[in-house]
Amino acid sequence: KKKSSLLSYLRLMLQHTLLIIHPNKASTARGICKCGYPKIQHCDEAIKPEDYMGEQWDTHRHVREVPTDAFGDITFGGLGQKTGKYVRVSSDISSESLYQLMTEHWKLRSPNLLISVTGGAKNFYMKTHLKDKFRRGLIKVAQTTGAWILTGGTHAGVMKHVGMAVRDYTLSSGLMEGQIVVIGVAPWGVIHNRHTLVHPEGCFPAYYALDEQGQGRLSCLDINHTHFLLVDDGTHGHYGVEIELRARLEKLISQQTLGSRGSGVTIPVVCVVLDGGPGTLNTIYNAMLKHTPCVVLEGSGRLADVIAQVAALPLSKVTLVLISQLMKRFFGQEYQSFTEVQVIEWTKKIQDIIRMPHLLTVFRIDEDKNYDVDVAILQALLKASRSDEHAGRQSWERQLELAVAWNRVDIAESEIFTEESQWTSCDLHPAMFSALVGDKPEFVRLLLENGVCVGKFLEQEDKLTELYAHLPACFFLRKLAKRVQGGKIHRGQEPQPGSSKISLSHVAEEVRHLLGSFTQPLYGLSRHKMTGDDVRLAVPSKGLVDLPCLGEEWTPDTVWDPGRDLFLWAVVQNNTELAEIGWEQVQDCIAAALAACKILRKLAQESGEDDSEEAKEMRELASHYEKQAIGVFSECHSWDAQRAQKLLIRVSPSWGRSTCLWLALEADAKSFIAHSGVQALLTQIWCGELSVDNPHWKVLLCMIFFPLIYTAANSKHLQSTLTPVLFTSPQVKFYWNIASYFGFLWLFAVVLMIDFQAYPSWRELLLYVWLTSLVCEEFRQLYHDFDGSGFRRKAKMYISDLWNILDVLSIVLFIVGLVCRLQASGTVFYVGKVVLCIDFIIFSLRLMAIFTISRTLGPKIIIVRRMMMDLFFFMFLLSIWVVAYGVAKQGILIHNEERLNWIIRGAVYEPYLIIFGNVPTNIDSEHCSVNGSDPLKPKCPMLNDENMPAFPEWLTIIMLCVYLLFANILLLNLLIAIFNYTFQEVQDNTDTIWKFQRYELIKEYHSRPALPPPFILLSHLILFIRAVLLRYPPQRHKTFRQELEQTEEEELLSWEAYMKDNYLASTRQDESQSVEHRIQDTQLMCSSSVCPEGRSSDRDDGESSGQETDEEAAPHTFARQLQYPCSTVKRFPVPEEKVPWEVPDINYITYFTKLNNIILDCLSYVTHVTYAFFRNPGGRTGIRGKGALKSLGPNHILHPVLTRWRDAEHKVLEFLAVWEEAEKHWALPGRLHSMCVFSVMQVYKGYVDDSRNTDNAWIETTIVTLHCDKHTPLMADLNRIVSRKYHFLSYCSDFCTI
User: Fold this and answer.
1) What pLDDT is stored for residue 647 in this prediction?
2) What is the 3-state secondary structure (H, E, C) of 507-542?
3) Confidence check: pLDDT of 307 > 90
4) How far is CA 162 from CA 128, 137, 138, 223, 241, in A?
5) b/e burial code for range 818-852 (CB count within 10 A of at least 16 → b)
6) 552 by DSSP, 3-state: which?
7) What confidence tens digit (pLDDT) does each residue in 651-690 have?
8) Are 385 and 1122 in contact (CB under 8 A)?
9) What residues pair up with 1291 in beta bridges, in sequence order?
């Protein structure tokens, strides 16, 4: 399907040429056409020379386009060679079609940078050091910036060097599918073995062989390029036919917007030059005229070395003689083929190139500097951007956008964030958004360090909404899309584009689901009423979901916290580095870390793929933030334990009004709960108002003889409060409940063993009352909303507790036993007693829960629980051996046993007892029944006629030995090994797990009534009256939640942020002192000491600019441009030293031609004498006549500078500018003759360096300033005049502020 789609597109959009023969005398004799192809390679209709006799060769008439027949995949064979793409296209194809082919059908991502490599097309020598730097730097800049590299595509010259760079990268990285995009634009007619690429249906792949020996004058494709555009103009053996198409393609790419957002920044283009000849000079010259920066590699040879030698010289020293000497030096024998006119033209073009130092960068190998070509390329682009005619803030912002797109923090630090640049937070917001969406954490950190304020960045809610709209593909995004679409998306199903709408409230719902229902939504409705179109949530590879941002109001229950918003956005996408940066910006950092831990573990749990890479990364990141929370809390606790404990129970408005303690419990952060500071808080809550230093024996003694507590009191007020304090302590409640539970079990045992009568005795009735109090307490625990999380969540938590399950099971069994016990039937009565006896076992097991508070026995209970799980799976394995041996043994020994109980006993029970050494005795006739008639004895084994056992004794012995070997030795020792492994594994963490589970016991007894069962019924009665009859609101336990005043909370959060900074500083210090970090630092120091970092020779302001310091002495420049404006006429090249008329130039030639139907010399009687009379005062221009001007000699023009005050205070001065469509720039209005002004002052009068000037016609201007009043009718008339004449005008105030 993909192949057919590409085929239909190529047939529709792309064409190549079909040749029609055009004969001439020279070619007809040899059978060779003008195009270079033999006569036999033309179509039938083309072989008719008589149809074209007397005609000149015309590409449009003698060449016809047909659908392309060469496209598809190309492979070069060999080890490690990857498959590329190629297509044969016409030289007249639109560049838009090619760009569409590359981005849509070849699936190339739009580049962030286009590197056009040009230079020598023949093989040339480069020094090893320079070659390594070029290859390494080119690949580095392409890899880091996501650039496209554009070359000539053949296996020779500079193209070969680029291919070798790609090959070295592929081999070193080990990537079969490289990330480097290298596109070769080559002429089809010069490709050797191109017939292997032709197939009407395309080649998938085409096998191309590199044959340098037999290529002759042709060229082979380079095997290391990834894509090829083969340009066909109908000729064979003609080089350079692709230049025009390549230039158009580069221009189109340079007009594309950089990135996916409409930032206004287009894709930058840079030209890299190695070696080169005349064609390369034209390429550089035309590129720099189009404001494309060029990087020239000194030492690569020929043209590159000529330019490098004169780049740093003043323009006055770059003479014809110097250029001639340098060409003779670097071109060698090839210099003899240059004519004198060509040398003059070279001199003129090189002078023009040097006159644009902001576009020229020379890369030199310096022993004192160590940098690759990538730094020179990026610096050249930034230098060109800085020197743009629209210099100022927009230039700096463009540079920053480019640096972000390239992800080159080093370039941004050295070239953009300098002392001269002053950035505000708002200026950096677009770059901040691009860095966040593009997952460039280093840039995010750099922007934060250089002035970005997160509060200002996320001040508008639409910014945060847009961030969620650009979330990368992740599990949270799929959950969010599913929530928006009402749960209609199933696992593996793609969200439908535009099917639903979403806002931050949907994000809040999903986050609340991940955090837990005990929290409040983090986002309400929007904080601002917004105007604009809906934002669409882009789900990469999974569709689009609309995000509305209109008509919603801010709810007062939520808190605006930009640091939290940024951190949460990074956490939900499981982005480690961005989340770390966001966490550093959060003020409530402990709660934020624990919330992230909870969210990530919940996401990993709900992903349903425990072994997936994404789930593992989520768990690792959750553990990381648990450690971060522990680190900050440890820092806080070491400074001030009381304030640190206050952080644990402080209500956090930023995280749904939850607390750090509760978030840690919900996140299963056992290590955090096990922290000594958290345990100290729990111990303090456990003791209540009692001192934590009290020995247990003192507390127990005071519980029995409570008057003893008054012995330590000195005041009557203290004595009156000691008794409630004692009995409301959770510790005391626990002790009384233990005593009560022991009493309950003692009474239960007495009833079962001694006092179980037909009619209940007073002891049994007391037992029923006692059980009733336990049932009421279970109901209170179920309905008691401790933390305000709701009944549904409370019920879920209640059922998830193993001890609660035992409580419910024991109560249900007691009720069943009681019902059976109250029946009159003796059988049912005894069944009831049996059920109650079993129930006593469960009640006794429930007693183990009291040991969870013990530091010694608590961890052991955890180990027992883990071993019980191991034992369950072991019994499943053991049952296989038991049943296998038991069934075989029963079938061999006993013939047709029909009693079910004895079948189960013989097949399961007896083999199980054999494991423990109990040898069965039913083989002996004294212990068995022959026919199975005795129900109390098993059936005897089968006998033969001689009353001997019919079964083979040797077989049963072997079976028993094998069974004992595996069951008794192997499996039992395996069980011991499993228990040992579990013990060793759990032993290291039992203390942590015990401390974590200790919280539930403390919370239970903190909320429990003071009276123990059965007296607790009084407390239950009081609670029932308060809640049901009096309808009092439920009491909240402030011990676990504390609301702080605003001032106190701000102080506490500031202190926490300070402690976080201390913790991060100490962490970085520890990392810097690690062995690995020291090794890296040593390597960097060694490399920098040998080759410290430097910069390319880019001829900055500190270096010689190549221009004269005396501006009046500098000759005109625009008047010597090789291309005369608005025409196809080219001037004769005039070097700098040949401009003055006083300097003789015997080679000076002028041309007389027409410019857009304007005759240069429209007066036929004009003679050379007339030309001599009208001579340009600025010197030679390279063309004679009047050109596009009205007359010979001076052409006068008036340029008024029109100004006005913007405001009444006269602080900002505006001036009038008009847009020149032909020149594509802003200019002052000219040739305005009738104006009403208040004041006129002449500024300048004289010659103007204009591109329309010729040797005999030039422009002289008079510049005057005219200041007008903004509110007079005269100003309105002036606006109408300018608008009618120039169609577009603008008042600019950015250049003059008073």
Assistant:
1) 92
2) HHHHHHHHHCCCCCCCCCCCCCCCCCCCEEEEECCC
3) yes
4) 14, 11, 8, 11, 21
5) bebbeeeeeeeeebbeebbbebbebbeebeebbeb
6) coil
7) 999 898 889 998 998 898 989 998 999 999 988 888 887 7
8) no
9) 1216
Confidence of residue 19 (pLDDT cuts 50, 70, 90): very low
1282 CB-near residues (< 8 Å, 6+ apart): 1216, 1218, 1229, 1232, 1289
What 3-state DSSP class applies to 977? helix
Q: Which residue reads 């059936």 in tokens?
A: 939
Residue 1222, Cβ density class (10 Å: 0-12 exposed, 13-18 middle, ≥19 buried): exposed
Indicate the pLDDT class of residue 1288, thresholds 50, 70 and 90. Answer: very low
What is the per-residue pLDDT for 303?
A: 92
- Beta strand 543-547 with 535-539: parallel, antiparallel or unpaired? antiparallel
Q: Which residue has the tokens 């919280």?
A: 999
41 CB burial (10 A radius; 0-12, 13-18, 19+):
middle
Percent of the chain at pLDDT above 70?
Answer: 76
- Contact yes or no for 789/666 (Cβ under 8 A): no
Contact yes or no for 922/911 (Cβ under 8 A): no
Separation between Cα atoms, residue 733 and residue 658, nearest integer Å:
27
Q: What are the DSSP E strand ranges found in 345-486?
A: 360-363
Question: pLDDT-derived band of residue 634, with 50, 70 and 90 as boundaries?
Answer: very high
The 10s digit of each residue's pLDDT in 73-122 is 998 876 556 788 999 998 888 899 899 999 988 889 888 889 999 988 88
DSSP conformation letters of 175-237: -SS-S-EEEEEEEGGGBTTGGGG--TT-EEEEE----STT-TTSBPBPTT-SEEEEEE-S-SS
Distance, CA of 778 to CA of 784 (rounded, Å): 10
Separation CA 318–CA 315 (nearest Å):
5
Contact (Cβ atoms closer than 8 angstroms) between residue 215 and residue 209: no
Quickly count: other Cβ atoms within 10 Å of residue 358's Cβ: 19
Pick the closest to residue 16 from 58, 64, 59 (CA basis).
Answer: 64
Q: Residue 1186 above 80 pLDDT?
A: yes
Instruction: Give the distance, in angstroms, between the CA of residue 1027 and the centroid of all CA atoms in the same chain.
Output: 53
Single-letter code of the amino acid located at 468: Y
Provide the sign of the torsion angle of the four alpha carbons 189, 194, 197, 199, taken in this order: positive
- Taking only the tens place, the pLDDT of each residue in 855-881 is 777 777 778 878 888 888 888 888 888
Lowest average pLDDT, out of 365-374, 628-637, 672-681, 1118-1127, goes to 365-374
Give the pairing type, strands 1213-1220 and 1193-1205. antiparallel
**Residue 779's pLDDT is what?**
85
- Cα separations in angstroms, 29 against 24, 25, 1193: 9, 7, 56
Count, in order, helices (H) and strands (E) of the chain. Answer: 45, 22
Cα 1068 to Cα 1080: distance, rounded to the nearest angstrom? 15
1154's tokens: 């027409």
pLDDT interval class at 960 (50, 70, 90): confident
- Both tokens of residue 972? 């039992």
| DSSP structural state of residue 1067 | H
Rounded CA-CA distance 184/194 in Å is: 15
**At 301, phi and psi to the nearest 5?**
115, 165
Alpha-carbon separation of residue 691 from 244, 687, 728, 732, 1143 (angstroms): 90, 7, 13, 12, 107
Average pLDDT, the chain: 78
1184, two tokens: 């004679």
CA distance 1170 to 1191: 12
Q: Say how many CA atoms lie within 13 Å of 990 toward its Cβ.
A: 21
pLDDT at position 859 is 76
- Nearest CA to 655 among 587, 571, 559, 525? 559
- The pLDDT, as a whole number, for residue 590 is 94
